[in-house]
Amino acid sequence: MSSAPIVVHRPSSAGGRRVTVNARGRDEILGTAYSDHDLVVFLEGAGIQEPDSILDDDRLIEWRGGRAHQWSVA
């Protein structure tokens, strides 16, 4: 189990990755991101300041089931 509060899940067969954030002790789905831009928009909506600066911070974001910034199944 990760201690990162934001999880970008494995790419789906249809493309895109589900994004969840741990808030108030439970995981909340922010949506399905298809690009770094989508992820930044979701994080801004969740109240994260300057979200583009944390995309590679493994203390805050865990990329599961694929490389970071990979949005489709290889």
Brief overview:
The chain is an alpha+beta fold and 74 residues long. It has one helix spanning 36-45; strands spanning 6-11, 17-23, 26-33, 61-63.
Notes on the protein architecture:
The chain has one helix spanning 36-45; strands spanning 6-11, 17-23, 26-33, 61-63. With 74 residues, the protein is of the alpha+beta class. Strands 3-2-1-4 form a 4-stranded mixed β-sheet, covered by helices on one side. The longest helix has 10 residues, at 36-45. It is globular.
Radius of gyration: 11 Å
SSE run? EEEHE
**Number of alpha- plus pi-helical segments:** 1
In whole angstroms, how far apart are the ends? 25 Å
Principal-axes geometry comes out as globular
**In which order are the strands of the major sheet placed?**
3-2-1-4
Query: Which runs of at least 5 residues are low in confidence (pLDDT < 50)?
Result: none
The percent range for helix content is 10-25%
Mean pLDDT: 93
